[in-house]
Write a structure and sequence with these properties.
Helices cover 66% and strands 11% of the residues. It is of the alpha+beta class. It folds into three domains: 212 residues, no CATH class; 69 residues, Single alpha-helices involved in coiled-coils or other helix-helix interfaces (Up-down Bundle); 126 residues, Heat Shock Protein 90, CATH 3.30.565. The radius of gyration is 34 Å and the shape is elongated.
């Protein structure tokens, strides 16, 4: 739930195309931390049980199990509340208005984890193990930048000192470097390993935020460039039209014919402005078809599809104004009605025709926009048929839409 809330805050306008990968990275991090903690505890218990000098209390296994449950529960609570969105660079805090309930949950988790650590220390007779699991919980807190690693160094030094105290009581020679000291060594590294895992996650979320910021800046630059070109184009023509109309107003009484000529000239200037605006909009709106297909593949992959894209030679010359809307429409149909497993997209030239095809697995029992009687395929057939093209549909375990249009149809449609 923490991830879902975090992603929603990070993307108020909707989930970005890489949200699935970022979310999966977070859950890999969570699973790795919990698994590492559990492995360390199990190895310690098994290792202590093999030591001849170690005495296990009668109620030791039961109390140790309770301690493990409390400590793991505390770890899960702390990781659940770990920030999963990148910090706002304009503020010092992850959240400008800190959640008091989250602070209370953190305090409760630390208290529960401390109880579990005490139980583990008492049942195993190891100060190092008890403090080690508590140090693991402390390393999971969202410390300010630079504080976490200083804390890890301090905790590691304390654990090393506790191992020096525990080793003689457990009958271990600290100068002996055989494999019998592997569990204490792993416990000694546990705070550093957990801090490294969270540092890696912090890096992933910062990179995700940087990617989104770069996209927003790029879009802003494009809008500013479009606004500048519109201003230059319209400003020039409007100034010319204003002068021509002013001149016509002065001439309308003494020379109506000249005034009418100025009005016709002004109308021609208005037509030029409209044509220039239309050309400008077309230039900004047009996207090369390979880029359109790459965007479509990214969108399908973000939705969980395994996508294979095959482009023939010269695909960049395919009529984007004709096939571009068709690509977007067909991908929308896959997202709505596909089973979400795989999809194939192909574009190649065959003789005097461009052939575009998209195929995807079908969700059992679900209809689609291309079902018989539906308006989706009928509209595509009418559109493509008017340009001299063909539309073919195949329905079995897959749904495949194939569209063939004549070469040069884009220029003819534009004319």
């Amino acid at each position: 739930m923490a991830v879902r809330r975090g992603v929603a805050r990070a993307r108020p306008g909707g989930v970005g195309p890489y949200a699935g990968g970022v979310r999966a990275t977070w859950w890999y991090t969570v699973a790795g931390l919990v698994f590492l903690d559990l492995v360390v505890l199990m190895n310690w218990w098994l290792w202590l049980g093999e030591l001849p000098e170690h005495v296990v209390l009668p109620a030791g296994p039961a109390l140790a199990a309770v301690g493990v449950a409390l400590q793991l529960g505390a770890a899960v609570l702390l990781v659940r509340d770990y920030p999963v969105v990148a910090a706002d660079p304009t503020t010092d805090d992850e959240d400008p208005a800190p959640d008091r309930s989250r602070h209370r949950r953190t305090a409760v988790a630390l208290a529960v984890g401390a109880v579990g650590a005490v139980l583990l220390g008492l049942t195993t007779g190891s100060w190092m193990l008890g403090f080690g699991v508590l140090a693991f919980l402390l390393s999971l807190l969202p410390w300010p930048r630079g504080v976490r690693w200083r804390l890890v160094v301090v905790l590691t030094l304390v654990l090393a000192g506790l191992w020096v105290v525990d080793a003689p009581r457990l009958g271990i020679d600290t100068a002996d470097a055989d494999l019998a000291t592997v569990p204490p060594t792993v416990l000694l590294l546990l705070p550093a390993l957990s801090a490294f895992s969270l540092w890696w996650w912090d890096l992933v979320r910062e990179l995700d935020r940087a990617r989104e910021t770069a996209g927003a800046v790029s879009a802003m630059r494009e809008r500013l460039r479009l606004a500048g070109e519109v201003h230059d184009l319209q400003g020039h023509h409007l100034q010319v039209v204003a002068l021509q109309l002013e001149l016509a107003e002065r001439l309308i009484e003494r020379d109506p014919a000249a005034a009418a000529e100025q009005i016709r000239t002004a109308r021609a200037s208005v037509d030029e402005a409209r044509a220039g605006t239309r050309d400008l909009a077309t230039r900004f709106r047009g996207v090369p078809l390979p880029d359109e297909l790459a965007n479509a593949a990214d969108l399908l992959r973000a939705a969980g599809h395994e996508v294979h894209v095959s482009l023939g030679p010269g695909a960049e010359h395919a009529p984007a104004d004709v096939l571009g809307p068709l690509v977007r429409e067909s991908v929308t149909n896959v997202l709505k009605h596909g089973a979400g497993s795989h999809a194939r997209i192909t574009l190649r030239r065959e003789g005097d025709r461009w052939r575009y095809a998209i195929a995807n697995d079908r969700e059992p029992g679900a209809g689609d926009a291309a079902a018989p009687g539906g308006s989706g395929i009928a509209a595509i057939r009418d559109r493509i048929g008017a340009l001299g093209g063909e539309v073919h549909v195949r329905r079995d375990d897959e749904f495949e839409l194939t569209v063939a249009v004549p070469v040069g149809v884009g220029e003819e449609a534009g004319a």
